[in-house]
Amino acid sequence: MFVQNSALLIYLFFTAYITTVYSSSSSESNVYEYDFYLTWEMSMTYTDSDGIIWDVTLDEGNLYYTPNLTRLELKKEDVVTLDGEQNKFIAINGQYPGPTIEVPLGAAVLVRVFNNLVTDSASVHWHGLNMRASNSTGGFATPWADGVAYVTQCPISPGETFTYKFAATQAGTFWYHSHLGMQKLDGFFGAVIVHDPTMPSYPSFFLLVNDFVHMDATEFALNFAPVMHVENKPKLDACAYPYGAPESALTNLPAASHLVNGRGRFENNTAPLEIHKVEQGQEYMFRITNAGFDDVFEFCIDDHLLTVVGVDSCEVEPVEVVSVFLAPGERVNVMVKMDQQPGNYWVRYRAPDFVKTTFGYSILSYTNSTADPTTSPEACTADLPCKSLNGPFIASPNWEAISIHKLRSTRYHLAEIDKIRGNADNIVEKFYSFSSLKYYAINGRSLVLPQTNLYQDPSAKTGVTCNDQLCDNFSCRCTYIEKLPTKHTIQMVIMHSKSTDCVHSWHMHGYRFAVLKIFYPVNGPDAIANETDITCSNDLCHDAKWVEEELGHFEVEYPPMKDNLLIPVGGYAVIRIYTDNPGYWLAHCHQDTHLYMGMGMIFDIDGESAEKTIPSNFPVCGDFILD
């Protein structure tokens, strides 16, 4: 017996001592416990009962390994295939994506993370979960468990264990992922579903969709450094400009493939795909998450309409569409009726209008067949346009775009919406502008993380001080922390400055926000115009204000509540929060490359009072300077 690939011997050596166990338990105390073991693994390999790792080959959609010159077939469940090519990845309990956490509303969740990555630190962010106290369990708020390295915790070093504990105080579709560097690109993510037992339940599919490249995060950063660092880059001819509109790129980093629950195909290979087995006449919920690092993608199912019933963790009144768009970090719940003839149908995931358009696929199957479908997407025309939710451009050929802010929350969220309505005495308005004049930044400030977590040492909170004159006029790199008043309604205008030409998505930790308005620029075959409602003194737009004051006045009815929002190129969004969750909360663009380069900021919302929640033995870290 032998190890087919010598490089894999290294992985075997470092991971042989780990027993990969996934355990979850619930008790009368309503505490759900999970153990996460982090390891580096290799796709398209198989570990036999003796611990020997073998290369796996593809042949007409089947998987094989060849011990002792005898070719043996494998089940697809026994192999992490990714897109059918060999690539290293971060596994959680040997899985890609990681195991799903599924708990009832009000549960206490305890996750022990064992970092066996040998040379890499880690952290886990619970995306969309606000770390608030639970009324049902009486548990305390745990802002320290938000999982942002150097903001809410020290990174988990190799060989260390870190325990997260939080209350599941919101129902809906969430997910978890690394919040250190660009580790999410390595596959460090998984789904979190919180069920409200008072709400109807349906048979469901959880879809974690991500763009995938054939290198790890470190290699990616090194290979794409000339593109990623603004001060060094020329005008990017590789950027895609949908419909010929200049200055309106969706991405300049096209992926090799799209994966659905860890399965996809590179180019024309025959790697096995994710299959959703359904019964004719039934109705199913698809919980779709964009777990990718850069791509905005469009989701649709051939010959089936989608009824949108939820965005992020918010229930909305039903809206029927042909497709939905999701920016990185966004989630959409759709209901789909199985009203077609038995057979297999393509489920499509398209990164639209890139120079190299990237497609991903899974299969909707009314039968037990694994054969590739022969179906086609909806034929949309100018006379019969297709409806699509959350498109990045309002004027799209043959499409009728429905903006997120046109959705209406159900009365399930009434208490939360009442809080953000506010009144003239307690509404504070703030403008935040994405820019990339010299650095990827917000309001001209490119985020430098502090040397230690902000709950650890008050004297270490400043990090790199922001020089306002430099930041406002030329852009700068600093630890951008903004203090917001507590118990106030904060209206935020999130906008693209004229200095940035790629799409961005706004994600807030610790809060979800009401979406009051999304403004799309005028785009078409020849031009795109930036917003005209807002005026600024320079291209960084650090001092934005409304052209007319009444443009910032809104009647709040039942807006959708979100924690992640696509901001159209050249446009803006108006959102609101109510500041009743103390802590230090990161807000940032959820394109990993943009955050990696500094497009983020930290809100201090009575962070000092939140320090009282920190466990007495909480890990500490920071620089050491010899006196």
TrEMBL record:
Write out the entry's keywords from A to Z.
Answer: Copper, Metal-binding, Oxidoreductase, Signal
* Pfam family membership, one: Cu-oxidase_2
Residue ranges of the Plastocyanin-like domain? 76-197, 252-368, 477-606
Instruction: Name a GO CC annotation attached to this entry.
Output: plasma membrane
Q: Does the keyword Iron apply?
A: no
Keyword flag Glycoprotein = no
Any one Gene Ontology molecular-function term assigned to this protein's record: copper ion binding
Source species, domain of life: Eukaryota
Which residues constitute the signal peptide according to the record?
Answer: 1-23
The cross-references to CDD domains, in alphabetical order and at most eight, read: CuRO_1_tcLCC2_insect_like (cd13858)
Q: Which GO biological-process labels does this protein carry?
A: iron ion transport
Task: Family membership, please give it.
Answer: Belongs to the multicopper oxidase family.
Q: What is this protein called?
A: Uncharacterized protein
